[in-house]
Amino acid sequence: MARKTKEESQNTRNGILDAAELVFLEKGVAQTAMADIADAAGVSRGAVYGHYKNKIEVCLAMCDRAFARAAEGFELAEDGPALEALREAALHYLQQCVESGSVQRVLEILYMKCEQSEENAPLLRRRTLYDKQTLRITTALLRRAVSNGELPATLNLHLASVYFQSLVEGIFGTMAWTDRLRNTPWEDVDALLLAGIDTLRDSARLRHAKPCAAT
């Protein structure tokens, strides 16, 4: 039997991951078996095991692919107004996640279909790592905004980061699962993000008693 080329192997992996997204979304991680993924992908179980040891490996690969796609086409500006960079990053994230497709499906699986269990522990750790990375990016931009004089020196960086990240996640949920923003959704999303930035500037609830370190 002729060996598969790298392109053929990658196509097989992509087909397996495409199918896994649909199966995990429908059944949840705990109730999904490798046989379910193989059936949905239209390949043998041996073909799935040839690429992944178990369903958790499949799910991790699926998550890594989706997060790589979410980052495509965007580079975080290393200088210039930090709050504008924060707004642009949030808009890019939302545009990637709200569009019906791989990124949205994987986020729904990770946050709604990944049950708390020992078997799912690697996935739960990956979810926690993703949360920490996004919070770290937000905090770095807010720290830069303080250093630039765009935000008060007394800003509570941790609380402000949690606030803004929660705002973005709430907007995502509104766009993905409701029809509250029907007529001009992206204009409304931008207005909500700008309102959040106004809150970062003005809310006394997001302040330390003493100036925070801006470096």
Automatic annotation (TrEMBL):
Keywords: DNA-binding, Repressor, Transcription, Transcription regulation
Domain of life: Bacteria
SUPFAM superfamilies: Homeodomain-like, Tetracyclin repressor-like, C-terminal domain
Stored PROSITE patterns: HTH_TETR_2
PANTHER family according to UniProt: HTH-TYPE TRANSCRIPTIONAL REGULATOR ACRR, HTH-TYPE TRANSCRIPTIONAL REGULATOR RUTR
Name used for this protein in its record: TetR family transcriptional regulator
Location of the HTH tetR-type domain: 10-70
Chain ranges passing through the membrane: none
InterPro entries (alphabetical): Homeodomain-like_sf, HTH-type_TetR-like_transc_reg, HTH_TetR, Tet_transcr_reg_TetR-rel_C_sf, Tscrpt_reg_MAATS_C
Organism, scientific name: Paraburkholderia agricolaris
Residue ranges for the DNA-binding region feature of this UniProt entry: 33-52
